[in-house]
DNA sequence: GATCAACAAATGGTATTCCATTACTCTAAA
DNA sequence: TTTAGAGTAATGGAATACCATTTGTTGATC
């Protein structure tokens, strides 16, 4: 039942394994990623590991320097700011197009994801809610029906997932998603676009508040 | 003098070779890319060829299906439309940020690229002018000082280069670049953004006109 | 004549091996 | 004690070999 799909490539499995390890914090930013070690650890040869590292490099999760070991990408505040700026143009575009172009079955998928998100946010199931929120975004991008946009979003997906760990006002996010859904459903591109912009702005504000809270907590701890 | 840099990776050289072959039309869209053949043709083993195909897959120039041969990506009208839509949000963003953040030495680079473009457009040097126009865009993206934006633009650079082959009103492009440069120089983000949007729109119109002209020509030829 | 099955050829995925380059360490000299 | 340098270990890049999967073709059957 839970047996792995033999058709999936080893390199993809290694990539998934490594990606989760990095995003779950098992591998520290800046730490070495040595092909031979990873290969031995995962039980494959170096070739699929190389391929996997290439993929993660494309996603921006690892830094692949020529002729020396790769390292886990260190995300800085500047990286987060860059991501926010890009989202501020791509998310409105995605939701505008989704509103203008969605078909009935696609809208239904969006609705289901939204319901999952609301329900899990209501009962404070952080992991499921985060996942559903990510699904909501992803489905909206699909509805936009622009393959290049989907590809670009795919390359920043891991970064996004990483940035989401930074804050967690799930109910607030779910509420904004409700408004976004309604704009898409009503085929109101302008409203969807504006809401998406606001959504990014509010997530930026929330992250800042979160960072301040963490810093205050740290200061308090030091003081004691 | 023109001796190759031995420090550059073999895979990068293969990628450059293949990329140029595809963009120059030496390899037809849809044609097979067989690792063994490419390796023999370029005189290396399959390994760097595999790596190169991975890179070009990331750039959207080749389609890499699992367990069977890769093919040269076939660009459709839909692909061009997708590219235009993405440019309509990323280009304004890039020029707005470039206007707001540029430093003196960066602006100087932009000015030099612009002068090259104007001069070569004046004497109808198509190749140099296209190259300079591409440089102008690329430098502007650098001035925007957003690493993620640079990366995303990098992934669509090959597509852009491909789409540029479709039209060639060089002087018109150069004129619009002059206006863009002035907005950037004046640190007028709003104007730069609006001009960039118009710039994309006019390039879309021009391509359409070009396509219509080509089709009319074809019809005339058939009629004779 | 069309269709499907089986076999053969071709192809990409992976493992193994070797090599050039890089990073580390230890020693000796200032 | 610090620093420069040589020697050594470690690492990624590339070549080669082998295997599983896919594709193309041929022939038999309906």
Automatic annotation (TrEMBL), chains A, B:
Q: Which CDD domains match?
A: WHTH_GntR
Q: Tell me which UniProt keywords the record has, alphabetically.
A: DNA-binding, Transcription, Transcription regulation
Q: Which InterPro entries match?
A: GntR_C (IPR011711), TF_FadR/GntR_C (IPR008920), Tscrpt_reg_HTH_GntR (IPR000524), WH-like_DNA-bd_sf (IPR036388), WH_DNA-bd_sf (IPR036390)
Name the PROSITE patterns on file.
HTH_GNTR
HTH gntR-type domain ranges (all copies) = 8-75
Output the PANTHER family linked to this UniProt entry. GNTR FAMILY REGULATORY PROTEIN (PTHR43537:SF45), TRANSCRIPTIONAL REGULATOR, GNTR FAMILY (PTHR43537)
Indicate what this protein is called per its UniProt record.
GntR family transcriptional regulator
């Amino acid at each position: 039942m839970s047996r792995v799909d033999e058709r999936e490539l080893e390199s993809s499995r290694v990539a998934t394994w490594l990606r989760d390890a990095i995003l779950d914090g098992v591998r520290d930013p800046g730490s070495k990623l040595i092909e031979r070690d990873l290969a031995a650890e995962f039980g494959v040869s170096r070739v699929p590991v190389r391929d996997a590292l290439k993929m993660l490099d494309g996603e921006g999760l690892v830094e692949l320097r020529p002729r020396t070991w790769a390292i886990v990408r260190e995300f800085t505040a500047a990286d987060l700011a860059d991501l926010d700026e890009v989202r501020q143009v791509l998310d409105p575009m995605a939701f505008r197009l989704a509103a203008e172009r969605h078909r009935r079955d696609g809208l239904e998928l969006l609705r289901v994801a939204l319901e999952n998100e609301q329900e899990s946010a209501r009962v404070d199931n952080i992991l499921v809610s985060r996942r559903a929120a990510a699904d909501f975004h992803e489905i909206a991008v699909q509805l936009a029906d622009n393959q290049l946009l989907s590809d670009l979003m795919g390359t920043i997906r891991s970064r996004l997932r990483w940035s989401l760990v930074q804050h967690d006002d799930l109910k607030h996010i779910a509420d904004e998603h409700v408004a976004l859904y309604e704009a898409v459903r009503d085929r109101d591109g302008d409203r969807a676009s504006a809401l998406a912009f606001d959504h990014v702005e509010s997530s930026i504000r929330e992250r800042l508040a979160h960072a301040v809270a963490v810093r205050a907590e740290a200061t308090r701890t030091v003081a004691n």
